Amino acid sequence: MKIKIELLTDLLxxxxxxxxxxxxxxxxxxIIFIGFLTWLNALxxxxxxxxxxxxxxxxFGIVPATMPYFFYFIWKKKDIDKDQQPN
Length: 87
Known about the structure:
Blueprint: H1 2-13, H2 18-43, H3 54-75
């Protein structure tokens, strides 16, 4: 558990580039915006039970906002150390 906490604190302390800040802000903004639309849609529903639709928020908010980062980490080129460069 200690390792996970250290990993999170290291990720939060790291300096971010302007491009990273813009992408993270857009993703968080998207998640909040879709959450608001999901909440508003639930309020305007004609059903008697008006509740937040978590499945809609997950599939239309969380998944689209996190998939670009997921694909980036899969497809990014690995940095090769200078000591390990092939001759």
